[in-house]
Amino acid sequence: MPWENKMNDAFSSYHPLVNFSYFAFVFAFSMIFMHPVCLGISLICAFIYSISLKGRRAAKFNFVFLLPMMLITAVINPAFNHEGVTILTYLHTGNPLTLESIAYGIAASAMLAAVVCWFSCYNEVMTSDKFVYLFGRIIPAMSLVLSMSLRFVPKFKARIKEVSQAQRCIGRDVSNGGVIERARHGITILSVMITWSLENAIETADSMKSRGYGLSGRTAFSIYRMDGRDKKALCAIFILGIFVLGGGISGGLKWRYFPTMKGRTGGILSAGIWLAYMGLCLVPVIVDRAEEHQWKVTQSKI
Amino acid sequence: MKITKNKIIAFAVILAVLAASFWYGGGAPGLQGWNVSQTPKGAAADSAADKNPEPVLPDNAGDKGHEDNPKEPADDKAPVNEEPDDKDDEIDSENNEADNEKKEDENQDEEEEKPADGIESRPRGTEGGLSASEKIELAKEMAGGASSPGMEKGSKDYSLEQGMVIDAATGKDKYLTDPVPEGKPVPVEPQNIEISDVEYTCTISVRCDTILDNIDWLDKEKVELVPEDGVIFPAAEVTFYEGESVFNVLQREMKKARIHMEFSSVPMYNSVYIEGINNLYEFDCGELSGWMYKVNSWFPNYGCSRYLLKDGDVVEWVYTCDLGVDVGGFYAVGE
């Protein structure tokens, strides 16, 4: 529910359509555009937004997990890809190590890291109630399955804790007994978990059915309203998104890695697209800052 | 579950997408846009839609069919020289030279519209498209159903005599190599050969002039890589050591000349495969393209790291755009 959202993220309290269209554009652009500047913008903005959204937790994830993953992927590419005209040296297999393959490896890894980071933001903002609100009408079964399966892992984790604590009370946890005993206890816990989850899934499905979920002519209660600010944000997202898309289609973001690296490195059109792309990626951060500023101004007036 | 209009529409859309991807991915019957004929491009595109485009052979099939090609390059060579400039121009057309080179751009477009003889509108790329047997069929059609001249069938008795171990069941050796023709050297296994320090010389050259005839098939990003005369490494007398293979010499010379070369080892054939030289890779100029080698004008039927060089051998690396037909190295299977 909107008022339950963390106070430090105003964007989450916007209409789900705004949230979803923002992420749809950002995901699509991060995956389509291989231009180094675009990848850089996407990666940096993803880092900024995830940190402003989740604070230290995100910073830790980004620097402990994402950066090393990026490094590994970047190193793997030149080991298998030897295309490119700039030969730096020869690998011990006899194939050349080229500058282009290294650059491509870095680009691919930046794209991977950016998309992973954007998804972590998406999960934070697009809660399952928002998703079901958006897609409950068009694809009812699909959206229910999706929201149930997305919810499955955290739910499973919470329940396994519950079960294992209950088992520990009667001395049958995985921490009790010898190796074989432990394994047997573990299997018991797993079996309990599976039974519980299956039963719960059926119960959820039945309960949704008995409420008439997905029937035609049935309305659903929702708390979301399209306000003036939502419309403004939606307009901004679409204008920026379509501008970037149009610029990309018209060749303003042309870049090739093989056989030589070549592409647009400047010019008004490209600079404009980069600026628009950066603006699009930073929409939530800008919204947050503006809201925060307003809050402070209002407070000081009192 | 009630069947509603929406569900039927959704089903139809999904079906259409699947059918389209099936067709596009090359699962469809027929040649999907491949058409061996001398028709202009537009007509070839039309016949792409044809479910069963029987490849139409040029009347003068076989070797003659391919002598038709050299007519074309005379005009085709001109745009090749311009190509590298045009590429630069295309990308940063905001440069002030743009006006100057726009005319050339137009020229190039005109050139590309021109119909070329031989195969029309072949799809590019490794994925989808044709299977290996379809490719061989197609090359056979182009060659007129026969091997290139000088490509004789292997002689089993001769190969056995030379020490090749041939499996009676398959008629091939354990690395799937057919017997070699009479008078030709049998393959050796590089791991069994000792390289001594006795110096010999051989001649080696690397050429890609067949691309010049088919420049419109070539990956647009790679046009600038093709030298004007198609010679990547002019014939040169080089030193090698007793026991070295064609591959050893190629690798050393390319390294020396700072020419890019990528290969991969194929354990099944106990040999290396040359994927690309000078950044011109297999499949870059149509699906039947790639690097081939000949020694003393014979295209060996085994990999280059299994060919033991002798003093005075003449090694030529050539790029083919149609499975060896254009360079005279096509070997019709089952002949």
Write up what this structure looks like.
The complex is a heterodimer of chains A (302) and B (335). By secondary structure, chain A is mainly alpha-helical. Chain A has two domains: 190 residues, no CATH class; 74 residues, no CATH class. In chain A, 71% of the residues lie in helices and 4% in strands. Chain A has ten helices and four strands, in the order αααββαααααββαα. Chain A has a two-stranded antiparallel sheet. In chain B, α4 packs across α5. At the A-B interface, β4 of A face α4 and β5 of B.
**What ranges of chain B have pLDDT less than 50 throughout 5 or more consecutive residues?**
30-126
Alpha-carbon Rg of chain A, integer = 25 Å
Radius of gyration of chain B: 23 Å
Determine the strand fraction of chain B and express it as a percent band. 15-25%
The multimeric state of the shown protein is heterodimer
Largest beta sheet of chain A, briefly? Answer: 2 strands, antiparallel
Task: Give the CA-CA distance, first to last residue of chain A.
Answer: 28 Å
Q: Percentage of helical residues of chain B?
A: 25-40%
- Element-by-element helix/strand order of chain A: HHHEEHHHHHEEHH
Summed over residues and divided by their number, the pLDDT of chain B gives a mean of 75
Biggest interface, chains and residues, is: A-B, 22 and 19 residues
Describe the global form of chain A.
Answer: globular
When the domains of chain A are counted, the total is 2
Query: Structural class of the helices, strands and pairings of chain A?
Result: mainly alpha
Helix run count of chain A: 10
Q: What's the order of the H and E elements of chain B?
A: HEHHHHEHHEHEHEEEEE
Strand order of the largest sheet of chain A: 1-2
Specify the number of helices of chain B: 9
SSE arrangement:
The complex is a heterodimer of chains A (302) and B (335).
Chain A: H1 16-32, H2 36-54, H3 56-80, E1 87-90, E2 96-98, H4 99-125, H5 128-135, H6 140-169, H7 179-210, H8 228-249, E3 255-256, E4 262-263, H9 268-281, H10 283-301
Antiparallel strand pairs in A: 1-2, 3-4
Helix pairs in contact in A: 1-4, 1-8, 2-3, 2-4, 2-9, 3-4, 5-6, 6-7, 8-9
Chain B: H1 5-24, E1 35-36, H2 41-48, H3 63-67, H4 73-91, H5 98-113, E2 119-120, H6 132-143, H7 156-161, E3 199-207, H8 209-213, E4 231-241, H9 246-256, E5 261-266, E6 271-277, E7 280-281, E8 290-295, E9 314-320
Parallel strand pairs in B: 3-9
Antiparallel strand pairs in B: 1-2, 3-4, 5-6, 6-7, 8-9
Helix pairs in contact in B: 4-5
